[in-house]
Design a protein that fits this description.
Blueprint: H1 2-13, H2 18-37, H3 64-72, H4 79-94, H5 98-102, E1 109-110, E2 115-119, E3 125-129, H6 132-144, H7 146-151, H8 174-188, H9 200-213, H10 218-225
Antiparallel strand pairs: 1-2, 2-3
Length: about 230
């Protein structure tokens, strides 16, 4: 184990990234594990070594003007654009994960209370506020977008309770959310280049950051995001 520690220290001194060192240590663990299973060694000393901590990278946060440019790029006409506008207005206004967006049903939106009921990680349900812009976008979608998408569904199947439907009348998947945002972001990037790599989680973290900058406290933001830990 002393030799292994010297090897890891040498890699660090040479300026190897923590991810590179962790990958090489994992390879050593695998090699020595095979030797143990073949009876060539009695133990695996690499199991006693801890991989170096990887630096945490903060997610890219969009500026309020960039978010507005992205959302305004989505026209409020046609079933799919209407759905996408409602989708991403909700994502930003309520700080929802892609996985949470696609699990929303018609009864998840409470227009009277201006809120959304979200089924999040750990099988936990939370109620989060939805802004006026998001609710208006959802209302337009329900009136002029969703009926057309619902009509495309298999007539022999049960009606889909999902709020957000695909062009075939089925519940959207998380890959659909990422793909649609990428398409709109690339169009918006012609005027705001920073939007080129926008993704659903960037909208979620932008929501949290803009709340914090507006004076919201961390504990409230934690509850809105549905995080178990405030970190």
């Amino acid at each position: 184990i002393r030799s292994l520690r010297r090897y890891i220290a040498t890699l660090s001194q040479r300026g190897q990234a923590p991810t590179t060192i962790a990958r090489k240590l994992a390879s050593l663990r695998g090699l020595l594990s095979v030797q143990v299973s073949l009876g060539h060694r009695a133990d695996n000393p690499a199991q006693l070594l801890s991989a170096p901590k990887r630096p945490q990278r903060l997610p890219r946060v969009l500026k309020p003007g960039e978010v507005a440019a992205l959302l305004d790029r989505i026209p409020a006409s046609g079933p799919l654009p209407l759905r996408d506008r409602a989708l991403f207005e909700l994502a930003y206004a309520s700080g929802l994960r892609a996985e949470e967006l696609v699990t929303l049903d018609l009864d998840s939106i409470d227009f009277d209370q201006e809120a959304v009921r979200v089924h999040g990680k750990g099988d936990r349900t939370r109620i989060v506020p939805a802004g006026e812009h998001a609710l208006r976008a959802v209302e337009r979608y329900l009136q002029a977008g969703r009926p057309a998408l619902c009509a495309a569904a298999d007539p022999s199947a049960d009606p889909c309770p999902a709020l957000l439907l695909s062009k075939s009348g089925r519940r959207l998947g998380t890959s659909d959310v990422r793909r649609r945002l990428r398409a709109w972001a690339r169009l918006a990037a012609r005027e705001s280049p920073a939007l080129a790599e926008a993704h659903p989680h960037a909208l979620r973290h932008s929501f949290a950051t803009h709340l914090l900058e507006g004076g919201a406290d961390l504990r409230s933001i934690q509850e809105l995001l549905g995080h178990a830990s405030i970190s």
